[in-house]
Write a sequence for this structure.
């Protein structure tokens, strides 16, 4: 996972600016065309844990709220059979302000892949209300800056349960 030093994951994320202040300043919802995405995964007790980082390359600040809808797809563009779930410890989402050149991130946790080996490289497609499209990002093993395509899947522990992708709300980076 690639996160700036000092970034925490868990029930005490970096506080986001308050919702009223952002609405008062008329900050628009981030558009998919203004964001670049990257995902780094690493092994986590027979699963894969990582972050989707969305970097604002636009000219003005924008905001993200809630959680994105995500789909993992293989090299052929086929969506993998994975159920997206909201973890019980996700907490409520809050409005995240993303300045030009800065990123917001979404913690991810992928469990129980019991299907056949997907065609690599894998990608994630992310969308959210008001985004005007979707952001597609390659999945990498380790830090996205290492540029090693993700070539592994979580261990199959519960074939009858199906594979899940836990998706947390957008979080700000310090």
């Amino acid at each position: 996972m690639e996160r700036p030093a000092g970034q925490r994951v868990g029930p005490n994320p970096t506080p986001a600016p308050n919702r009223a202040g952002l609405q008062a300043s008329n900050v628009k919802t981030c558009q998919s065309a203004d964001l670049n995405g990257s995902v780094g995964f690493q092994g986590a007790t027979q699963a894969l844990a990582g972050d989707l980082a969305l970097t604002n390359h636009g000219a003005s600040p924008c905001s993200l709220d809630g959680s994105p809808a995500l789909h993992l797809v293989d090299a052929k563009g086929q969506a993998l059979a994975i159920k997206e779930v909201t973890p019980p410890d996700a907490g409520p989402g809050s409005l995240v302000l993303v300045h030009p050149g800065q990123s917001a991130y979404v913690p991810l946790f992928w469990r129980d892949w019991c299907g056949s080996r997907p065609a690599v490289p894998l990608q994630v497609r992310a969308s959210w209300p008001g985004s005007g499209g979707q952001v597609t990002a390659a999945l990498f093993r380790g830090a996205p800056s290492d540029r090693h395509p993700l070539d592994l899947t979580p261990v199959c522990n519960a074939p009858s349960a199906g594979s899940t992708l836990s998706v947390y709300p957008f979080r700000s980076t310090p």
About this structure: The chain has one helix and eleven strands.
